[in-house]
Amino acid sequence: MRRYGKHTDEDDIRARPNPKGNRPRTSKRPKHEDAAEGFVLTVDRGRLTCLVEDRTIVAMKARELGRKAAVVGDRVWLVGDLSGRKDTLARIVRIEERKSVLRRTADDDDPYERVVVANADQLAIVTALADPEPRPRMIDRCLVAAYDAGLEPLLVLTKSDLTSPDKILEVYASFGLAYVVTNREELAAGEAAERVRERLAGRITAFVGHSGVGKTTLVNSLVGAGRQRATGHVNAVTGRGRHTTTSALALPLPSGDGWVIDTPGVRSFGLHHVDPSRVILAFPDLVPGTEDCPRACSHDEQDCALDAWVEEGHADPARLDSLRRLLRTRERREGD
Ligand SMILES: Nc1nc2c(ncn2[C@@H]2O[C@H](COP(=O)(O)OP(=O)(O)OP(=O)(O)O)[C@@H](O)[C@H]2O)c(=O)[nH]1
Ligand SMILES: [Mg+2]
Ligand SMILES: [Zn+2]
């Protein structure tokens, strides 16, 4: 894996250095009053597919954007050939201010930030109940990312035909996390989609999770015929999927009232960019136990009140363990 030592978007790396030095560009920037507004549906090697009115237009970013890179979910302004005809290429001259930015790093000690999607308002954290095994710590990480980015979390538990959701729900439903449970039979009957759609109306929802948990399968059932993406099957030996999703793609709900964004499976959800003091926000069930903590408690120190509180039986010790593990991997960044 390539690593970069600074906080940038993927595409930023390809930005050409300004041959004339650091002269500010703003004063010379053309106004582009004729620009059309578009919505970025997907990005593939510097080519951005955008929706402009009812046409899909392929574009690249204009040089004047400098280091800024547009990502899926961005609202952008385009100029040039806006016909949408084959082999035409428009230019993106401006990116609208983002309402939200969902970020991820490969590991907690990797400073290279990727922007997963822009402008989402909901994060669907997709977890299979089996095949692959659910990993609560991944859920916790996604929750931290969601709270940090200001997205509403929605826990989507798939494959309940293989295992019951009860154990996971005991933890996550107990503190009021919104959730839906789906299985193969209900997917086939369209019932799963119906239930999930209720949560998606009027919003932009990004679907994230490990590879093979069923993100694309679910998104396919949500968006209807004609927009199907390939799905993978989980390899019994490696536990990893095949024919899996390689790029994020925004798809409209058939109702016209909202978007779903399918993303490639990730092995982990690194949180290098999240301030450690914000990690506790993703553990609402533990927050009441912090009342007796010393001021500015890191919740990973000797005087932290959470240990005694959990020992008294107010919360599952596994939850405190997950919080501490997250805090510890987060603290490592201080040294880098
Ligand atoms: N038993 C069962 N299998 C399911 C269910 N949903 C999806 N699958 C299967 O799980 C496998 C992986 O599904 P995908 O939708 O490709 O998973 P994904 O999360 O998109 O994977 P990546 O694109 O690699 O991130 C496929 O073989 C699906 O048929 C379900 O509810 N029950
Ligand atoms: Mg997929
Ligand atoms: Zn504490």
Q: Which keywords apply here?
A:
binds guanosine-5'-triphosphate; alpha/beta; Ribonucleotide Reductase Protein R1, domain 1; binds magnesium ion; disordered N terminus; 22% strand; binds zinc ion; single chain; 336 residues; Rossmann fold; 3 domains; five-stranded mixed barrel; globular; OB fold (Dihydrolipoamide Acetyltransferase, E2P); six-stranded mixed β-sheet
Description of the molecule:
This protein has helices at 136-149, 166-172, 184-189, 191-197, 215-223, 306-311, 317-331, and strands at 36-44, 47-52, 55-61, 75-80, 90-95, 101-105, 113-118, 122-128, 152-158, 179-181, 204-208, 249-252, 259-262. By secondary structure, it is an alpha/beta fold. The protein folds into 3 domains: 36-95, OB fold (Dihydrolipoamide Acetyltransferase, E2P); 101-262, P-loop containing nucleotide triphosphate hydrolases (Rossmann fold, 3-Layer(aba) Sandwich); 278-331, Ribonucleotide Reductase Protein R1, domain 1. A hairpin with a 2-residue loop joins strand 1 and strand 2. Helix 4 (191-197) crosses helix 5. It starts with 35 loop residues before the first strand and ends in a 5-residue tail after the last helix. The structure holds guanosine-5'-triphosphate, magnesium ion (MG) and zinc ion (ZN). The site of zinc ion (ZN) has 7 residues, from loops.
